[in-house]
Design a protein that fits this description.
Elements: H1 34-38, H2 45-52, H3 54-62, E1 75-76, E2 84-85, E3 90-91, H4 93-106, E4 110-115, E5 121-125, H5 126-142, E6 151-154, H6 159-171, E7 175-177, H7 184-194, E8 198-202, E9 204-207, E10 210-213, H8 215-221, E11 232-236, E12 250-252, H9 253-256, E13 269-270, E14 274-280, E15 288-293, H10 295-308, E16 317-320, H11 327-339, E17 343-347, H12 358-366, E18 370-373, H13 375-384, H14 387-390, E19 399-402, H15 409-419, E20 426-428, E21 463-466, E22 478-483, E23 493-494, H16 498-506, E24 513-521, E25 527-532, E26 537-539, E27 542-544, H17 546-554, E28 559-569, E29 573-582, H18 593-605, E30 613-616, H19 630-637, H20 652-664
Parallel strand pairs: 4-17, 6-7, 6-8, 7-14, 8-11, 11-12, 16-17, 16-18, 18-19, 19-20, 29-30
Antiparallel strand pairs: 1-2, 3-13, 4-5, 9-10, 14-15, 15-23, 21-22, 22-24, 24-25, 26-27, 28-29
Helix pairs in contact: 2-3, 4-5, 4-6, 4-11, 5-6, 7-8, 10-11, 13-15, 17-18
The structure holds adenosine-5'-triphosphate (ATP) and magnesium ion.
Amino acid sequence: MTWDTTGTLGMGEVVSNESLANLLREERRFAPPTDLAANANVTAEAYELAKADRLGFWAEQARRLSWETEPTETLDWSNPPFAKWFADGKLNVAYNCVDRHVENGLGDRVAIHFEGEPGDTRAITYAELQREVSQAANALTELGVQAGDRVAIYLPMIPEAVISMLACARIGAPHSLVFGGFSADALATRINDADARVIITADGGYRRGKPSALKPAVDEALTRPGTENVRSVLVVRRTGQDTAWAEGRDVWWHEMVGRQSDQHTPEAFEAEHPLFILYTSGTTGKPKGILHTTGGYLTQISYTHSAVFDLKPESDVFWCTADVGWVTGHSYIVYGPLSNGGTEVLYEGTPDSPHQGRWWEIVQKYGVTILYTAPTAIRACMKWGDDIPAKFDLSSLRILGSVGEPINPEAWMWYRKHIGGDRAPIVDTWWQTETGGMMISPLPGVTETKPGSAQVPLPGIAATVVDDDANEVPNGSGGYLVLTEPWPSMLRTIWGDDQRYLDTYWARFENKYFAGDGAKRDEDGDIWLLGRVDDVMLVSGHNISTTEVESALVSHPKVAEAAVVGATDPQTTQAICAFVILRGGATAEDEGLVDELRAHVAKALGPIAKPKRVLPVAELPKTRSGKIMRRLLRDVAENRALGDVTTLTDSSVMDLIQSQLPGAASED
Ligand code: ATP
Ligand code: MG
């Protein structure tokens, strides 16, 4: 790799430019299925068109939407990096996601198949969705919400979450979703930062077979300073559990929304009208409120959802397993599928409730054709065993998607074989909260896919890999992932903090958006994501990516999941320390297992990448969106007090790891 890490890793070392040439050498290729390629929504021509005229390409995609005033402008980049897209156009996002489909005669099409964790179900047609969104919009208006006012949404994965978001969009009130697993503190900080006026919540939701309360966290958050402007709390009754009630502030959804008219005329807003604020967790300090607007956002989300999943709205059943509280849920549960008039599944619960085959049972029940999930879930299913998905009929699946972390080639192959029947193409989609929509991904009818690589920028997207001096790296080298041209669904700023927007994304390289991720171009020019720049390890003068060592470990038949960190080391600057979850009946006590795993990595990647320590553990620390928190593992490996654990799903995981530490270590 070509990183001079001075200032990046804060180590001030002189780093050799020598690359680890044999890292992630991947020979396997999978051509698109012939019938899929023959009928694909998007062909290779799209790359040519977009290359010849990028803005013309996006202007053409904007015609997917129904505008009240058609835009004549495409991009205004006169004040970079503050972009305006389609600025003289006007549209209503909810009209685009709901009403226009009803007007086109699709009122009876199911928009959402809701599957509650306890097994209750509801099929909501576009006509019903239109009535419910209209009622909710009328209710918000009665509660005094006006265009521009922020509404916080703190709900489980129930239809009211989607309805609330669309109702906000309909009246031009930006929503701010806070994931239902976050604490009262996290909720209070986000309410305060966005200065929300109304909160939509529920008494509780179902999680692992039990009702789990939500409303008490809202009550607690509203005792914190900075939340005084919240006038009303609209409460959905989901679990029926007892709930404290603040008279005058709290109102039941079924009463307030239930008594509204189901007619509502949507008003068109300017294309740059704010649609939502969504907070990224932020590694330090205050969470960043990422701001997205309407016209450009909906254009890119609608296009990518159609192109990358090859959506045929009349026959496909789409399922994105993310929570609506993450950007994946915003873009590919709400705005993508619904703007395209698709039919989708919305599932409330966890994949292993009440049994580890629940997801596959749902795929079979609804005949899901397109599944979009995260590597962490795929690795969990690998660990539970191949026999579980094998019990269900998954033959309806025709396209599989992945997002959120690099997918290890081994997990990719498992997903293809055991879920996709060795038939369905996998699209590994790279993007971020900040990018709003997908940026790098294969196209299922065009790209010959390669396990573990996100491959190529989508048509109309300019992404590349650069070295420290902002020069594009040659094929076979690594560096930083950057975006070199503005894109329609890009963040517009950090809410209330333009300076932080400039500093975080635009200061590292001139005129380029710095994504914060390491990446590499292989010999074919395909892009591989290598993990966050902050996690890169420096071993004896070599930059080594966490992703590559983790993928090498996961390629061993006894490893289900791995997390790798660099721990300070007197001889080598950092030493590689690997935490692994075992599978197939292997245990930490197995004679010689640790040495076998170390040797396996050395063989796959070269001796420089051989972990100094390998620690089998029962669980890994993950964020609530399922990503491994390497920062905490670094604290453990360096024998430090743990940093902030508030965004962890389960903080007891860290106690468990620490208690396992000494005996399992191996050193030489
Ligand atoms: P925060 O920014 O608050 O620390 P986050 O970066 O995890 O949180 P997201 O915006 O949900 O929040 O995630 C985007 C990041 O996830 C990307 O920057 C990248 O590191 C990783 N990522 C997403 N998709 C992929 C993918 N297909 N391959 C590799 N990495 C991915
Ligand atoms: Mg991020």
